[in-house]
Design goal:
The chain is α+β, with helices and mostly antiparallel strands. Helices cover 45% and strands 15% of the residues. The chain has a five-stranded antiparallel β-sheet with strand order 4-5-8-9-10. The protein has a three-stranded antiparallel β-sheet with strand order 3-2-11. It has a two-stranded antiparallel ribbon with strand order 1-18.
C-alpha cells in the first residue's frame, strides 16, 4: 500500500489511469501542485470571508477558521460587503422559487403523463433534501465569493443535495481555461469515526491516516490528532470520459494511504451545480461582490479611522481662561448649576469643529458608490425610499429599474434550478441500476396530499423531453407592492375579481381560494383518472355540470390530439353524455286525454251484423 511522500514529485499526472494503490499519493501531489500554482484564489476567498464575517480568520480549514472573538475596536464599523451581499440575496430569493418542468414535444399522451410525473418526482426529491433552503445559502455564497455550489450524490441509496464551500472545490486553471475542465477535485475534512462506518473494509487505514491540512503556499501541514474533532482530509476526484465510448472516466475517494472508493465515471458532467455572480472573462471561477468592492471597503475603513481620530483629538470641550484673570479653576467641573467665581474676563467654553463636511461627504459617496457599482438597491438595503419618490407607481418603477441589473443573475438562478433537476435525473438513473424500485414522496400542496412516485413509472430518456423553468413572476414580491399592482390591473379592467385574488397570493386567502378551486380540482382529478388509469368516475348531481362539460370537452380534445386509446376516450364521452343528460333532464310525459261521453248502443240489426263472421 502506497503512503504519502511529501517530496514525491513524480506522482503527479494522469491519476485516473493509475491503480487504486497509487491514487492517494498522486492525488495529494496534484492537490499540492494546485495550491502552489493557484494559491491566490484561496487567499482571495479568505479575504472575502474576512470582509463578510468581519473576523481575522487565519485559514479556510476547520482548525484555522474558528478563532477567538475580536475586540470591538478591531471590527468594521461600516461593513458594506455584508450589506451588499445580504441585500442582493434577499432581492433574488424573495419571490417564489423557480419550478423546473419536464416538457415533451410532439409526444403521445403516455409520454406526456410520464413527463408530468417526472416533474413531480424531481420536486419530491428537492422537497426531501431541503433544496430551497440550500439554494438560498448558495445565493449568498455566490454574491460573496462569486460561486455558490451544490453537490448531487447518493448516501445510503437516497439522493442528497448538499451545499459545498467554494474553497473546497479545485480546478487546475489551465484545464479550466475555457470553462469546461476535464478533472474536478473536492477536499473535505470528515470525522474519522464516520469514515470507519461508511468504509468498514478500510477501518485500519482510516485509523492510521494522518491528519493533514493544506495551506495556500502548497505546503502540507500534519496536524496533531484531536479527540474533540478527529477529522481526516478526504480528496474526491472526477475525470470525465474523453468520448461517449471511452472508458477513461474515473471517480475516486482517497485519504492518506488508502483509496476508499473507485468507479468508472460515465456521465458527461460532474455532479456539481454552480450559481455564479458574474461570468468570468476566461477561466472557471467567477468574482463576487467582496472582490468588486474590496478597494472601496478599504477606503471606507481608512476614512472612518480618520474621522475617529479627529473626533478623539478635537471633538472635546475646552475651557479658555485668560492669563492673569482670577478664575477658580477648581470650580470647573461637571456639577449641575455650578457657580464659578472670577475676577476680570470670564472663562470661555468652546468645542472646535473636529471633522470637515467634505470628509463626511466623501464617506457617504464611497458607501453609495459601492451600491452603484454592484447594482444592489440601496433603498432595499436601508428600507428607505430615495428622496423625491413619493407615489407608489414611482417607487415601483424605480424598483423595476434596480432589478434590471440582476436580470443575468436571476436567469442564472433559474438555470441553477434546471441544472440541479438534470443532475437529479442522472443520479436516479444510477441508483435505479442497483434498486429498480426506488421511489420518492411528492407533496401536492394544492391538493394537500402526498403521493408516492416510483422512478420506473416516470423514467424518460434525455432525448424525450425539454427541461425548463417557470419564469419568475413579473409582479412585485412585497405584499404592499403586489396588492398595489393587482389593484391597478383590477381597476383598469385588465383582470376580474377572481383573478385578482389568485394573483395576490396572500396567505389569508389560501383557504378561500382552495374552496373556490375545489370544483375544478375535483373534475381534473376525475378526468385524469379516466384518461391515465382507465377508471370511470361518473358525474354526480352536486357537481358544477356546466363546468364539467367545459373542462371535460377540453380534456377530451387534448387527449384525442395526444393519441389516447379509444377505450379511455369512451370513458370521457360517457361522462359528458351523462352530464348533459343530468343538466337537461327529459320532459315529463304528456297527461292523458280527458274522457268523453259514453258511445250510444248500436241498433239490434247492426249488432247482429257485427257478430257475423267475415266472408
Amino acid at each position: 500500500m502506497a503512503t504519502l511522500d511529501i517530496d514525491q514529485q513524480s506522482s503527479q499526472g494522469r491519476w485516473w489511469l493509475a491503480e487504486d494503490d497509487d491514487i492517494p499519493a498522486r492525488l495529494m501531489a496534484v492537490m499540492r501542485t494546485i495550491y502552489q500554482r493557484h494559491g491566490s484564489r484561496q487567499l482571495n476567498l479568505l479575504r472575502a470571508a474576512r470582509l463578510f464575517g468581519d473576523m481575522p480568520a487565519l485559514g479556510l480549514s476547520p482548525r484555522a477558521f474558528s478563532l477567538p472573538s475580536v475586540p470591538l475596536y478591531g471590527r468594521l464599523s461600516l461593513n458594506v460587503v455584508r450589506a451588499l451581499t445580504t441585500t442582493a440575496r434577499a432581492d433574488l430569493v424573495q419571490g417564489p422559487a423557480p419550478m423546473p418542468m419536464f416538457v415533451t414535444s410532439g409526444a403521445d399522451y403516455e409520454l406526456q403523463k410520464r413527463a408530468e410525473g417526472l416533474t413531480k418526482f424531481n420536486r419530491g426529491v428537492m422537497y426531501q433534501t431541503g433544496f430551497d433552503a440550500t439554494a438560498r445559502k448558495v445565493a449568498l455564497h455566490s454574491a460573496i465569493f462569486g460561486d455558490g455550489i451544490v453537490k448531487v450524490f447518493a448516501r445510503d441509496g437516497k439522493p442528497v443535495i448538499e451545499h459545498v464551500f467554494p474553497w473546497e472545490m479545485h480546478v487546475e486553471e489551465a484545464d479550466g481555461f475555457y470553462g469546461a475542465p476535464r478533472s474536478l477535485y473536492q477536499t473535505k475534512w470528515v470525522d474519522r469515526s464516520v469514515l470507519r462506518e461508511r468504509f468498514p473494509d478500510y477501518a485500519q487505514q482510516i485509523e492510521e491516516a494522518k491528519s493533514i491540512d493544506l495551506d495556500p503556499s502548497g505546503g502540507m501541514l500534519f496536524v496533531q490528532r484531536d479527540d474533540l474533532a478527529d477529522q481526516v482530509l478526504c480528496v474526491e476526484a472526477w475525470h470525465l470520459p474523453s468520448s461517449a465510448s471511452a472508458e477513461d472516466g474515473r471517480h475516486v475517494l482517497a485519504i492518506d494511504g488508502a483509496t476508499l472508493f473507485s468507479e468508472e465515471w460515465r456521465d458527461e458532467s460532474f455532479p456539481f451545480v454552480r450559481l455564479s455572480w458574474s461570468e468570468p472573462l476566461a477561466g472557471y471561477w467567477a468574482c463576487g461582490i467582496a472582490d468588486e468592492v474590496a478597494g472601496l471597503q478599504y477606503e471606507i475603513n481608512l476614512t472612518i479611522e480618520k474621522i475617529r481620530q479627529a473626533l478623539a483629538l478635537c471633538a472635546v470641550p475646552r475651557v479658555f481662561v485668560e492669563k492673569g484673570s482670577k478664575v477658580a479653576t477648581a470650580q470647573l467641573n461637571n456639577d449641575l448649576g455650578a457657580i464659578i467665581h472670577y475676577v476680570g474676563r470670564p472663562p470661555v467654553f468652546d468645542v472646535a469643529r473636529a471633522v470637515s463636511p467634505e470628509l463626511v461627504q466623501h464617506l457617504d459617496r464611497l458607501y453609495s458608490k459601492a451600491f452603484e457599482l454592484t447594482g444592489v438597491s440601496q433603498m432595499n438595503a436601508t428600507a428607505m425610499k430615495p428622496a423625491g419618490l413619493s407615489s407608489g407607481r414611482a417607487i415601483r418603477v424605480y424598483a423595476d429599474l434596480q432589478s434590471k441589473r440582476f436580470v443575468a443573475w436571476g436567469q442564472a438562478y433559474q438555470d441553477f434550478y434546471v441544472e440541479t433537476a438534470r443532475q437529479v435525473v442522472r443520479l436516479m438513473r444510477r441508483l435505479a441500476e442497483d434498486d429498480p424500485e426506488v421511489e420518492v414522496v411528492y407533496h401536492d400542496d394544492k391538493r394537500r396530499r402526498i403521493e408516492r412516485i416510483a422512478w420506473a413509472d416516470v423514467a424518460l430518456d434525455e432525448e424525450s423531453y425539454i427541461l425548463q423553468a417557470y419564469p419568475v413572476s413579473s409582479l412585485p414580491q412585497t405584499p404592499a407592492g403586489r396588492l398595489a399592482a393587482v389593484d391597478d390591473m383590477l381597476n383598469s379592467g385588465m383582470i376580474d375579481a377572481p383573478t385578482a385574488k389568485r394573483l395576490a397570493q396572500m396567505p389569508d386567502l389560501e383557504a378561500e381560494m382552495s374552496l373556490e378551486d375545489a370544483p375544478r380540482d375535483l373534475l381534473e382529478q376525475a378526468f385524469e383518472r379516466m384518461l391515465t388509469d382507465g377508471e370511470y368516475s361518473p358525474p354526480e348531481p352536486f357537481y358544477d355540470l356546466q363546468l364539467a362539460l367545459r373542462v371535460g370537452s377540453l380534456h377530451y380534445q387534448r387527449a384525442r390530439l395526444a393519441g389516447v386509446p379509444d377505450e379511455r376516450l369512451d370513458l370521457v364521452r360517457r361522462f359528458l353524455v351523462t352530464a348533459q343528460q343530468m343538466l337537461t333532464p327529459p320532459a315529463p310525459p304528456a297527461p292523458p286525454a280527458p274522457a268523453g261521453p259514453a258511445p250510444e248502443p248500436l241498433p239490434p240489426e247492426l249488432a247482429a251484423a257485427e257478430a257475423l263472421p267475415p266472408t
